[in-house]
User: Fold this.
Amino acid sequence: MRSFSSFVLASVGMLFAAACQSVEHSYITNVADVPLKVTGYESGSWYSSPLRANNRYLMHGANTKKQREERLGDYYYIRWYDAEPDKPIKLVMQYTQARMGSTVLTAEHEVKEPRSGKGIHLYRFAFNGDVRKRLGDVLSWRVDLYSGGQLRDSRKSYLWQEPSVTGAEVVPAKMVAAVVKDAIKKLPADTTAPEVEFEVSTDPAAEFDFTIDD
Assistant:
C-alpha cells in the first residue's frame, strides 16, 4: 500500500511538473492590491495579521514620522510566470487617480536581459509620497504583460473602463511625471485628496512573499 501511494504521489508530481513545463507563454498569476493606510497596526484579529506583516516590510528603514507618512499609499504586487526567459518582458500598468478625473496614467517595468530560466517573478508598483497625498488613491487599473513585444496576459480591476470606449486621455509612462507635476501646480498648496473607500482584494501568498525583482 505504501509503495502504491508513493507511486501515485510521484505520478501526480511528474504530471504537475510536465504541465508547468508545457506552458508556452508567460502569464500573470495574480495582482495583489495591498494599500498602506496607517503607519502601524496593533495586535488584533486574524485579518490584521497580513496587513501588519506588509506594514512592517514597507516601513523598514523609515525612522521618522515624516518618512513613515511618505510611505503611505497604494501598493500593487504583480506576480507572473515567465515562460520565455530569453525574451524581453514588460509590465504595463494603466491607472486612474482620484484627482486626475478620467485621465489614464501609465507605469512600466521592463526587463530586457535574458533570465536564468522559467519561473515565477514578482514586481511591485508603488504610489505613495506627496504625489499620492495630493492626487489621491488609485481608483481603477489594468495590468498588461508583454513578452518579446507581444501581449501575453491582462488583469484589470472591477472599476476599470477601457479608454478606447470612454475616450479618456492616456498618458504614456515617459510623460506621466510632467503631467502629474502640472496637475499638482493647479491645486492649492495645502490640498490633500480625500480618502476613497474601496474593497481590498489580496492574495495571502503575495502578501508574505516580498522578494521584489530589481
Q: What stands out?
A: The domain at 73-194 is CATH 2.60.40 (Immunoglobulin-like).
